[in-house]
Amino acid sequence: MDKLANPAPGFQRNPDKVITVESYRGTVTVRAGDRIIATSTAAKILSEPPYPAVFYIPFDDIDFGKLAPTDHSTHCPYKGDASYWSVQPAGEAGKNAMWAYEHPFDEMVEIRNHGAFYTNKVTVEATPG
């Protein structure tokens, strides 16, 4: 099925908006202070100019025992509805620090079951492999 010919309901087509998702070759580690929240060798990089690139980490590589779901949500016309989690070891600074598109538009299926973190709330380290 051609995803561009048959976009998902709610997906906004914009020829000037190019979003790419690629595998990252290396290790991505997310920390709150000295506590590791996530570490992955299967992270993806989502590029959506003019925004900075963002690492999306598979749920299997995230320690959800250090996170708490929140009621916060946002909507992206290109990715879908995002859910948020607070990073508990970061305290108030970690509020809504991780987001994920649990049911993204078909056009962004590559980031399903992956979480991304705000770099101003936690430390995200990328080590090329």
UniProtKB/TrEMBL annotation:
InterPro entries: DUF427, DUF427_sf. It comes from Mesorhizobium humile. Residues 28-119 form the DUF427 domain. Pfam families: NTP_transf_9. This is DUF427 domain-containing protein.
